[in-house]
Amino acid sequence: MIVTETDLPLKAFKKGKVRDIYATDNMLLIVVTDRISAFDFVLHEPIPNKGIYLTQISKFWFDYFKDAIPNHMISVDASDFPDEVKNYKENLKGRSMLVKKAEVLPIECIVRGYLSGSAWKSYQKDKTVCGKKLPSGMRESDKFDEPLFTPSTKAETGHDINISFEEMKNMIGEHDAVKLKELSLKIYNEGAEYAKNKGIIIADTKFEFGKIGDQIILVDEILTPDSSRFWPADLYEPGKSQPSFDKQYVRDYLSATDWDKNSSPPSLPEDVINETQKKYQDAYEKITGEKFNF
Questions:
Q1: Rounded distance between C-alpha atoms, residue 206 and residue 225, angstroms
Q2: What is the rounded average pLDDT of the residues 133-157?
Q3: What H or E segment, with its residue span, contains residue 99?
Q4: Is the separation of the CB atoms in 101 and 28 below 8 Å?
Q5: Most CB atoms closer than 10 Å: which of 6, 30, 149, 260?
C-alpha cells in the first residue's frame, strides 16, 4: 500500500517533507509516508514502501543502541497506538512509530567518515570542510583518518547552516554540546562498523537529540538511507563518486535533467522509481538481516 498523505483523528503536530506527526497526550505518533524529497522539493511521485523501510531501519538501530543511549521510541506496533486510529491500522502498519515527546535540541549532529557531497565541494575550493583544514591530495570519497563532527543549525525551511563547535556550545551549553558530540561519534563509529560487516559503508550521517527533563535522548530517525549516505562496500573505489543505497540516486537523475531546481521538479520515470525502491529495500534487508514481508 502506497501512502502519500494522512489525515488521522488526532491533533496535527507537524507535517514535514516526508513525515506527518500527530500529538496524543504526552506522546507523538510519527507516520513516515512514501513521499520523497530532493533539493528541498517534495517530488510528484512516491517511492512505494519507502516509509516502511525507513521506520523499520530506525527501529532496528534504536533497539541496537538502546543500552548506549535512550531514545524516543515507544512502539511500532499499531495495536499499541491510540484508540482513535484503530481504523487506520492498515495505513499505519510498518510505517509509524509512537514516541515520547521531547524538547528537540536545535542542532543537526552531522558526522562525516568520508570526503563526499558538500564536503568534497568545499575541499576542492580551499582544502577545508566546515572550517576544518584537511591535508592536501585527498580524493573524492577518501576515508578520513578519524570521522569529522560538523554540526549545523536546524532550519525549518531552506538549507541548514554549518556552525563551529564553539557556536554549538553557545547555543545549547557546553555540557550538552560535549555530550552530543561524544554520542554522535560513538553511534556513528559503532553503526558504521556493523553496517560494513553487512556490506554497507555509511559515508556520513546526521543525528538529532532531544531532552526529557535533564536526560538527553535520541530522536527522529537514525542511520537510514534518508539521514545518511549509504554505499555498497564491495563497489567502493575512492577517487570518484560512489553508487549508493540512498536517495542520491534520485538526486543524480534530477541533476542530469535540465531542471533549474527552483521550479516544480520533473516527474520521475518508472524505472527510476523502481530502482530507488530496490535500493531502499536492499538497505533494509542488509541492515536488519530480515526479508521484507510487510
A1: 11
A2: 92
A3: strand 96-100
A4: yes
A5: 30
